[in-house]
């Protein structure tokens, strides 16, 4: 059943959002986008609408994206089987070429095109452009998987200054011109830190940090860095959530005010987080005295 709203109800919603609009206008918000929200076409459209709406009200949005499923799809077509070690893609020379082709090509330009179609003004770049993400080999056993050594953020600042929504694909390079596959969450944390962003939003496929991983009602709405350390010890932050929370903490140490892990499968979750009292997901903060 489709919900209908009167003009008065719509006006009330906008009025309630006003304090949040004032808070974020002119501020930088980095969105890490990937996973199921990227696969589902309807959700992808809604995420792009959210980003364009934020841009239209004056928020400086930077979109950092992955594209693992699309990489796997092309590798499958080429008869190359993906291999992972501790959640990281083993990346030989052929695979890094595929990663570059998919991320900097198909996925990046598709997102730019969608943002433009929704009324935004977007520009796609990769971590190679302007030497944005400098990297080195993380572990020879993983091949061309990169460890970030430096972020040269000026190309992104230039795009923001000119009114663009920067759309960044997560590949990097070294001084010799080698290309590296960079973990999307890590890249988002480093980019957001270099921008001293007001917020970093990490879109994933679960509601956030759950006290009981099988019960969405046990969502922890907010956690400090110190509290997160206890949640690691208790085993509440475990499995695939560990690297995500690690990236949240990395971002905060690098100057981001706070980071939210949220379920990208929930329609308009970005707007819920930034423009409503209720919010969405788990917010990670520096501490109670911030």
Largest beta sheet: strand ordering: 5-8-2-1-11-13-14-12
pLDDT under 50 segments (min length 5)?
none
Give, in order, the helices and strands.
HEHHEHEEHEEEHEEEHEEHHEHE
Radius of gyration: 19 Å
- Shape estimate: globular
The total strand number stands at 14
Strand content: 15-25%
Top keywords for this entry?
two-stranded antiparallel sheet, 290 residues, alpha/beta, single chain, globular, eight-stranded mixed sheet
Task: Give a description of the structure.
The mean pLDDT is 87. It is built from ten helices and 14 strands. A hairpin with an 8-residue loop joins strand 6 (133-137) and strand 7. By secondary structure, the protein is an alpha/beta fold. Strands 5-8-2-1-11-13-14-12 form an eight-stranded mixed β-sheet, with helices on both faces. It has a two-stranded antiparallel ribbon with strand order 3-4.
Give a summary of the structure in a few sentences.
The protein is an alpha/beta fold. The chain contains 10 helices and 14 strands.
Task: Please write out the topology.
Elements: H1 7-24, E1 28-33, H2 36-39, H3 41-56, E2 60-65, H4 68-77, E3 84-85, E4 88-89, H5 93-117, E5 122-126, E6 133-137, E7 146-151, H6 154-161, E8 165-169, E9 171-173, E10 179-181, H7 184-195, E11 199-204, E12 222-224, H8 225-233, H9 241-253, E13 258-263, H10 269-275, E14 282-285
């Amino acid at each position: 059943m489709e919900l209908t709203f009167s003009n008065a109800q719509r006006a009330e919603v906008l009025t309630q959002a006003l304090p949040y609009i004032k808070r974020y206008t002119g501020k930088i918000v980095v969105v890490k986008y990937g996973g199921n929200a990227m696969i589902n076409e309807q959700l992808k459209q809604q995420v792009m609408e959210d980003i364009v709406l934020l841009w239209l009200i004056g928020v400086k949005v930077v979109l950092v994206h992955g594209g693992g499923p699309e990489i796997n799809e092309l590798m499958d077509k080429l008869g190359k089987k993906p291999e992972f070690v501790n959640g990281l893609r083993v990346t030989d020379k052929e695979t890094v070429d595929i990663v570059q082709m998919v991320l900097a090509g198909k996925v990046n330009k598709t997102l730019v095109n969608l943002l433009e179609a929704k009324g935004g003004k977007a520009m796609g770049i990769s971590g190679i452009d302007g030497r944005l993400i400098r990297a080195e080999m993380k572990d020879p056993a993983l091949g061309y998987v990169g460890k970030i050594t430096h972020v040269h953020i000026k190309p992104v600042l230039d795009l923001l200054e000119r009114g663009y929504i920067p759309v960044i694909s997560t590949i990097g390079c070294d001084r010799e011109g080698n290309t590296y596959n960079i973990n999307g969450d890590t890249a988002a944390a480093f980019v957001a830190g270099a921008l001293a962003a007001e917020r970093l939003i990490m879109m994933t496929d679960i509601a956030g940090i759950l006290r009981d991983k099988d019960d969405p009602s046990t969502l922890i709405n907010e956690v400090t860095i110190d509290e997160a350390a206890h949640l690691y010890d208790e085993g509440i932050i475990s499995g695939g959530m560990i690297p995500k929370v690690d990236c949240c903490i990395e971002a905060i140490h690098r100057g981001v005010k706070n980071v939210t892990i949220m379920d990208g499968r929930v329609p308009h979750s970005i707007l819920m987080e930034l423009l409503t009292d209720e919010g969405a997901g788990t917010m990670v903060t520096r501490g109670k005295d911030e």
